[in-house]
Please model this.
Amino acid sequence: MAEAPARPADELDLQAANGSPARIGRPVLRYGGADRTTGAQRFVADLSFPGASQVALVTIPVGCAEIVGVDSSQARRVPGVLDVVTAAELPSPMPRFGPSHQDRPVLAAGGVNFHGEPVAAVVAETTDAAQAAARLMRVDFRELPGVYTLDAALAPGAHLVHDPSIRPGDPRAERNVLEDALYTWGDVAEAQAHTDVVVEHDYTFPMVTHFPIEPGGTVVVPTEQGGLDVYSPVQHPYLLQRTIASVIGLPLNQVRVFAPDPGGAFGGKQNPKLEPLMAFIALRMRRACRLVLSLEETFHAMRRAGCRIRARTGFTRDGELTFHEVHADYQIGAYADVAPRVMAKGSYVAAGPYRIPAVRIAARAVMTNTTPSTAFRGFGSPQVAWATESQLDAGARLLGLDGLEIRRRNLVARGEAFVRGASAARADGEWRESLEKAAELVGWGEPLAPNRGRGIAVGIKPGATSGLSQSLVRLLCDGSAIVYAGTSDMGQGARTLWQQIVAEELGTPIDRVSVISGDTGTVPFDLQTSASRSTVFMGSAVLEACRDVRRRVLELYAETTGVPAEELDEAPGALITPDGRLSLPEAAREALGTLRGEFIGQGTRRLRGKGDHPLGGDAAFYEFNATAIEVEVDRETGELLLTKHVSVSDVGTELNALQVVSQDEGAAIMGLGHSQMEQLLLDEHGRIRNLGALDYRIPTFNDVPLELVTAAVENHDGPGPYGSKGISEGALLCTAGALGAAVAQATGVVIRDLPLTPERVWAALRDAEARSRADAELRSAP
Amino acid sequence: MSAGGLHDLQTVALTVNGSERTVAVPAHRTLLDALRDEMGLTGSKTCCAEGECGACTVLLDGRAVNACLVLCAEADGHEVTTVEGLSERGLTDLQEEFLNAGAVQCGFCIPGQVVSAEYLLRGNPSPSEEQIREALSGNLCRCAGYQRIVRAVQATAARRRGDRG
Model:
């Protein structure tokens, strides 16, 4: 078994790392880190656009309405106001866009489908003027009976979020179900014959918002050539480029997307939202137009799909799973965005990483008049994992097993299928090692203090099922290097890895490797920064580009020196000559000679999908995580004190130990957010009641567990460079299941709705006490 | 004073990072917006704009405040230090320890964290873990480098005390 040391940061020896020739796996300091501590790092709102006009959005205070009229006369009288843009000022019919369904209008046309959907935009010389004028806009609307919950959306005769006219040819257009998914294998009826115990329960997972600390924004600058420069802190600059080009009608080379580093994204900054509107406004104004969002506006721009899951699960008396049935309804919101994919990909792993002979998973993406949900770290898996992991514990309690033992008995081994049938998925790691490590680190089986409990859970998430990353590496004549890689560096530290790979492969010191990203005008194509794909996809492209450089060095060295190419060889960081080993930068210098110049290497990593696969292809890798939590419950207040939180991820190979720790700890704490405190609450008009930082709680310093320990299992078995896998989402997949089980053990009360707020825990304890009192009275009655 | 119009400008003179600055701003202009928009000091960040996230933390007469909750006019005659001011002579020991601890991810909250942590350490050279958490509890980090940040502050405290870390 691989070494998997628990590693508080103090044990990461940075000094050794910086002086060491071995660059892979070491905790190298973050590229661009220093500028982030001094304030020199420029996020989109920090960029200066002299002469830009400022844009403010106009919304109405309901989630579903028909727009009767828009009166901008007062707004236009505000000094400094340049223009007011409503649907009437945009093309008709209103252009629509979206990554899979082209259903999202550039600006609300005719009606509003969710609270916060803009109906107009005010353009002014200053932000003050734009905002003052936006408040003076008069929007006459007629509120409609919007659907704000799953029940309302699925009720017979429910208001349709989308008029069937924008879903032509869709047999489901008369319902609010946008897409569904069905995964089945084995025979549930037959499996029931071998079943000793069945548990059946309903679970809910709340709508939560990404809450990036950088709200973000967009600036669009028309160019003299008739094109557009678009500045937006997006995860997918090339998708934004294509979307703008398509809605405006420009060739790709006329749309240049600059993507300043996102100040946190977590999936929320993947897909275009307000950029097409800004492009139309800038073209109309013929000048730079700038929109900076407020935090509240990000609540209206991104969220995770809430979910309701009914699960029915069978076990033998030995605790072996016999069947598992899941029905999951994802509450996706007013436009598709990427949510149908979230539903399909999340529910694909709804049976968990287990050996189950018979499974039936049915899931639906249900539209409601709410903020369009989108990708959010975990991509649909945390919702179903909450239910399935809780079902395992429900079975264990009935059978007198503990949470660790029942998972040991059902977890698949390497190579074993956990999704069966035509599109089977097999374990691509020794996952049991992570489970055992988490149990060991949490002290599973040690005696518990009063009011304390422990829970353990596992989670899996499919990585990317197709992808394309292209990269260029330039080795300059002085031995320094420049990498061109389109991955957005949003906190995961991608550029640091590219530095490490180049240093390893070309022998260039890390501080002499720079990385260019965030500019579609100079950097080659990258499909997207999502699904923890970049290490595997872009990392492989950078690696291949480095090897291309090495081959070119060899060829030119042979030409320059006259040494036959057959007598030369190349290796990481070196050219092997008949006279011995030359460092690659030295060999490059010699080969380039007095004309100097440079070597340009190209690398591509392409994964084609499979047309007949329900996800469009096999996942390039699976993220696997085991989380174990020890909690102390205050029975008087319902408050949870996390005394220990352990997260163990199967990472393949850690390319940068410090960044892996940061990602794991960050995901673990984000998981505590949706498990313990976060939830978007709506009123009867579909308005978000807890809009903003004051009323929507995310974890703070005071919410960090007393002990937070992360560890990595390394078996060098991933498809990425040096055996790496993607790692950025694992630690939140099953946080809720581990916490729920811990609370159940501490209190004897099982809660199946998230988040486990003090109020909810307290109420559950109170109800349980009332029930047991009533039972006692019944028993003592004559 | 008569009821001034929304856009009547007031002259505010303040010391920012050791330099005297004079700006003409409307009464409602926050110190944060004045720093960012009038003085080009964009190290202080805007997130919640209601004093909950700490991304805009600056020192006002040496005390940590949310610049989004202070009107620029209130800072008239006072001294403001921003993250740029703390960093004038290169990285501080605290900023170095943020990097060493892996506390910096997307980085958007980090300037505010650095200012809050500097304020804590100036008043309490040996803070306990609990005191660090409490002092920084008004600074949100969604990448949740909280544990890394605590270690960075501890390491800085040790360095300043002359302990060998």
Q: What stands out?
A: Chain B has six helices and five strands. Chain B has a mean pLDDT of 95. Chain B touches chain A through 58 residues (CB under 8 Å). Helices of chain B lie at 31-38, 83-86, 93-100, 110-123, 129-135, 146-161.
